[in-house]
Design brief:
It is a single chain. This protein is mainly alpha-helical. The chain has one domain (2-63): 434 Repressor (Amino-terminal Domain). It is built from 4 helices and 2 strands. The chain has helices at 5-13, 18-23, 29-37, 43-53; strands at 2-3, 62-63. It has a two-stranded antiparallel sheet. The longest helix has 11 residues, at 43-53. The two termini are 17 Å apart.
């Protein structure tokens, strides 16, 4: 499963907030809600977040193995 815990840590250590992401950088509130719920995001959105926060993808998300992950077999 994909976890966005690194995003929240990166956001906390930056000068940005969810408010500035929405108002200054035009990140939609639904994107913020998707991050909160752990829902999927497009690579374009991930790219935008990395650009805004000046960080690497691993500062936004991480893969956490989970028994509920879909098997490829």
């Amino acid at each position: 499963m994909i976890s966005y815990k690194p995003f929240w840590n990166t956001l906390e250590s930056s000068q940005e907030t969810t408010y500035t992401l929405i108002t200054k950088h035009s990140v939609s509130s639904s994107t913020i809600n998707r991050l909160r719920r752990g829902d999927g995001l497009s690579t374009l959105t991930l790219n935008d977040l990395c650009r805004i926060l000046n960080c690497k993808i691993e500062d936004i998300l991480e893969y956490v193995p989970n028994n509920d992950d879909q098997s490829l077999q």
